[in-house]
Amino acid sequence: MRTFNLSDYLLQYLDKASGTPRNRQLYRLMRQAILDRVLPADTRLPSSRDLATELAISRNTVLYAYEQLLAEGYVEARAGSGTYVADTVPDTVHLPTVATRRVAAIHETAHLSQRGHRLVAQAGAATQQWGAFVPGVPDVTQFPHKIWNTLQSKVWRKPPIAALTYGHGGGYQPLREVVAEYLKVSRSVDCEAGQVVITNGIHQSIDLCLRLLSDPGDVAWVEDPCYWGARNLLSASGVTIRPIKVDAEGICPSEADLAAVPRFIFVTPSHQYPLGMVMSLARRRSLLDYARRHGCWIIEDDYDSEFRYSGRPLASLQGMDSGERVLYMGTFSKTMFPGLRLGYLVLPQALSKPFVTGMEELHRSGQAPLQATMAEFMTQGHFNSHIRRMRLMYGARLEILQQEIDSHFEGTEVQAVGSDAGLHLALRLPARCDDKLIARLALERGVAVRPLSSYYHDASQGDSGLVLGYACVDDANIAPAFEILAKQIKAYL
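The line above is the sequence of PLP-dependent aminotransferase family protein; the predicted structure tokens follow.
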């Protein structure tokens, strides 16, 4: 019979600072040592009292581990002799050691699929989601939470049974109805409630379209530059991306592009992301005609159309579509708060029922009480009031930021574009500027911006610039934050 001193081995891996109780740690380590044959069959374990003393832990901790191992058959108690490792692991089994598993954990992405690798490698979501100058984030401190809480409490006071079970039918019906009415008035969207599917945001809306309308190898036109999230969803779905340059009138396909008919055309016509231009009427008509003739699906992302600071809000592309080729999507993340995770997808009549079915099969809709609260918020007029108030606030912040840009860079090659709508603007920089380095240096000093080049399909060929969000920056903080950013830019000028 052999004996084995566990203490040195166990002390290497017991983590006293871990949130996992020590008795569970000890049990897992000893179990794995048995499976790894560090503790071979027939090894006599030290007494619980001796092991507790050597590890400087309580005897009850050791007793727990021993009793659990005994219950699971890893060890056996022999009367008058002690506790021994049971012969439970076949000789042909070769399991990784603790050290091997720790190395493998470091390389966890090695197990991803090719699609998973692409998605992780191209991930664009930032860890910082608040402050100067994070793009696309509204000022959540101004949200009327007291009104929302009152409405939510009313919903929860006596929720119908249907609101507490799995959702169905494309979302909470009163919300679908009020969203349809809102979009008719504010965005000239031609729809009825039955064409509206409530989703948890733009990402889910895009994903649903791709899952139900695409096959691997289908081609999608995307604006270049474009929103990284849409590009990554398209790539992850197996769709082949064809980047299409944009000009002052929006997406601008070449003759060669037009000759290779795509399955999808992904556009942000009312406020191109991230450059901010508006698609011209001529370009809209041309795009709709092309989609109708060739059977393409146009995915219209109308992500922040509520915030326009000069002129009248522009009508949607969907409202001009007589061929039913446009899938229109929007979100409440910009108008309410991102954590709400509510959006909407407006479909052609022929796709409404299949998409509702597909939504239920893929995602099992829910959050009916949340959707009911949103419906009340809109029906009672709070939504429109909130938008009007925030539009004035964001417009004032945009003006302050533009004044700072002029103050620091008037007469230089630095130019602000896309600054008449939305929650961000793009700052074009000379080609000699390394926008990624500028963004990194600014972040080290507490200012978050995105490099414009990262929005291009090929970042190495993209224009140099920075994307600045101004919505979630207090008026008083805009100037000092931009001062920090300006210093990094001026190093190149």
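Note on the example: The first strand starts at residue 2 and ends at 3. The chain has three domains: 2-99, 117-123+144-379, 385-490.
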